[in-house]
Please model this.
Amino acid sequence: MSIRLSGSGMTRRAVLEAGLAAGTFGLSGASLLSSGARAAPASASEILTGSHWGAFRAKVEGGRFVGIRPWEKDPHPAPVLEGVMDSVYSPTRIKYPMVRRAFLEHGFGADPEGRGDGDFVRVTWDQALDLVASELKRVDQTHGPAASFAGSYGWKSPGKLHNCQNLLRRMMSLKGGFVNSSGDYSTGASQVVLPYVVGSLEVYDQTTAWPVVVQNTELMVFWGADPINNNRIGYVIPDHGAYVGLEALQKKGTKVICIDPIKTETCSYLNGEWLAPRPQTDVAMMLGIAHTLYVEKLYDEKFLAQYTTGFDKFLPYLTGEVDGTPKTAEWAAAICEIPAATITELARRFAKNRTMLASGWSMQRQQHGEQVHWMLITLASMLGQIGLPGGGYGLSYHYGNGGSPAANSPVLTGITEGSKTAQGPAWLSSSGAASIPVSRIVEMLENPGKPFDFNGTRPNYPDVRLAYWAGGNPFAHHQDRNRMLKAWRHLETFIVHDFQWTATARHADIVLPATTSYERNDIEQIGDYSLSYILAMKKVIEPVFEARSDYDIFAAIADRLGKGDAFTQGRSEMDWIRSFYEAARVEARGKGMEMPVFEAFWNSDDALAFPITDEGRGYIQHKDFRDDPLLNPLGTASGRIEIYSNNIAKMNYDDCPPHPTWMEPVERLGGPDTKYPLHIDTKHPKYRLHSQLCGTVLRATYAIAGREPCLINPQDAAARGISDGDIVRVFNDRGQILAGAHVTDSIRPGVICVNEGGWFDPENAREPGSLDRYGDVNNLSIGIGTSKLAQGNCGHTAVGDVEKYKGRPPELDVFREPVANA
Amino acid sequence: MNAARAVEVLSPDPRWNASIAEWLAGIFAAAPTADTVISYRGRMGATLFASLAQDATRVAGARRMQSALDIEAPAAVLAPELAAAFTHLFDGVGGGKTVPPYESAHVGASGRLFQAPTDAMEKLLRRSDLSTDEAFREPSDHLSIELALLARLIRHDSDHETQAALLDDHLLVWVPRFADRCRAYDRTGFYAGAAQVLVAFLIAHRASLPHWSNQQRTGVTPCRSD
Model:
């Protein structure tokens, strides 16, 4: 019933309809549907797979991941599984390839200050891959291979094929080189110094097995270690075997001491004695104990003579002969705030009992971190119980479920990074055109071409123009966020793979949507130390949106670089998985074990178990060395524990002397030059793995006023008018964050704690120093190396202050709160 | 041109309503290209917005869309601006200011995507012997799919019961909330305006259908496509 336009044969409506149908106004809804229904989905099923938090069974209905329950053989499932499911379907999921608008319109190097603004445009996969390949080529041709950084540190996901960091470097090796990184943020200092002290990395070596500890240890000391908290996660798939050991320890009623600024879950669970020294003063405290052992003749001279070297050079320092300052318990007490009487009593108790010194890694994530485990091992040497059942020290009871008895199992290999490069300086890593200590990335960007000291060498920083990141979130794990923001502007191009819009993804120029582990097939082991199962990580659902596996993404890029075949070797995903399994099967046969054929393994409804051995159950670290130090020497120059290291002496580093030494850090609670009154502690969060799972429903279980919690002692809170639940601003000269106050006497006065991994959410992404609204503690930490030896990260060196936040709390941008709660 | 004003009566014309639904589906499926912006700024676009503006409930939204398109910038500059706004609103990068275009995000307590509404939509599509196009990599409870199904049913002027169900059980449950958030967070006005038009359209269309209660809706007859 519409009026005809004069002279036209059609109504205006008809014209418009035709236009709409013809796509004049863009995509038409009509094109979104096709004739013919999709087949009705299969009935509900359960699929077994795994994650950094443990193995689990995923319920699938209608092709959707609808439920999750722990694997029935997990002795202590982690409480985060709901978050795992949530992360797959989060509204912050990266759906399509994206390019930052300024980069797309004006090319590389455009408006680097605008990174983090979230101004992205969707592109097709072809466009994105072409752009990535052309950028890689451009940087190589213009600046050479040492201008692309692919160190790409982070915890990624478990799985031997979809190891996105190896895959990245595999592609980059084929491209023709890149800058790699060495070390890690976990044990940066210790893993470099301990080879000089005990001839191995030590921090990733199996500790004395829990059954031996439970049977023999009389005094269990957790020094900066919280195994109940930290063993929920695993680098492969955790077996949670530590909880079996800890439960047995608790039932036995073994005496436990926890030395920590916080009364940890472990301390409560084991009814431990809580000693809370000032953070960063542990070396002084250990020296005080050592001094007592010496003067009260409680130390094991024979052990020192037979199994160590250099005590004679360390002793004059301990007694004060060399510097006029005897490292007495009183001297130590003034620094660490533990009473001298307690320190001397500790020495006596350590000596009198079969003592296990179980240390975590937080203490070595501080300036001069190299000294901490060196001094701990020196102390253990003086006690002389190393290599005895339940005695000595262990540096991994808190990580990877160390102490969980090992199985007799084959090594499961995985996808490799690629071959060595042919030329270059002596300090080349196994792949890459250059390498830096992983946490010196900001210094690298700030000082291209300049020299730096590292572990006896003096290389130059490369001049990096492009960084490619997969499986990591440096805008969570790296220190001194604001300094990092400025340094990052030196990069012309920043490419990121992820599946959630993390702060790092938001900071990228090119973002590629990766699949989660649950949208692809893989294979992995269960138990970081026990290696007690091989698990088929079976795909739960098809990739969502336009997500692709990192393998497929890198293969496509390699293809554009003319190296597609070299990358894939003509193998499919399942071909690779099968090849890893088959290699393990051959090795297992050599050990007298017959693994099932691959199909039987893959189609089985359970993980493949390997037998825990008596040897595994009875394992005592360094027993072989103790039994026969000549036949089983340590990997040090002398074959013994080196309390004094000639190699380190030759380096002449002012910040890393040749024996364990107390040195004042640049800032600490009670430090002589320290401006701020509080130490800012940070620990591993219960409901996350660093920043993983921060963008999920789990946050509702712990966030306070929507922010990351800040633990604060009632004394410190009262002095500042802060009440439980208040929004507070934590600050120092390096940055400022908001957090939610949790007033508790589980933390000692003078120390506050904001857990690491909170997502960075600056009020103004263009302005370094602007207020971080959620609570990313690395806005406050210091970005220096531990010393010239290890150049490890100092995430635990931070002082600051806290105040109640006045004014209207700003809205968060970085997460999307569920609409129903908004 | 005729001196008399051409007055077009808004008749309940299925083809017109289907076209509007298809157009709106397209708006929320992908950002406009520069060519599309040029079309909007041309005669066809003027006609489109004029037609929309004749309905009192749609005029505000239509005007808002037009203002967004009429800014002083070449189409080649405006199109990426709208694309960035689209991404910010609908693709998750907006963080707290994301407005997920999925029913699941707005009805479930968890805010997760791919929840029960996805299943329900799959069932409705199957019953109509339809499926989401392979190239559109979105779950079935995406606004554009729900609208595309509605459009298909309207175009064949069939199965008013399913149309009512689609509106009562799905679109009208969550789209008003979705539209509110678009209005709050869309810095361009284009999507805020489109969302306004959308809500008005859905309400009007529902009103034009018979009023069934849930009990009365016993079963649904499948819609056969041509």
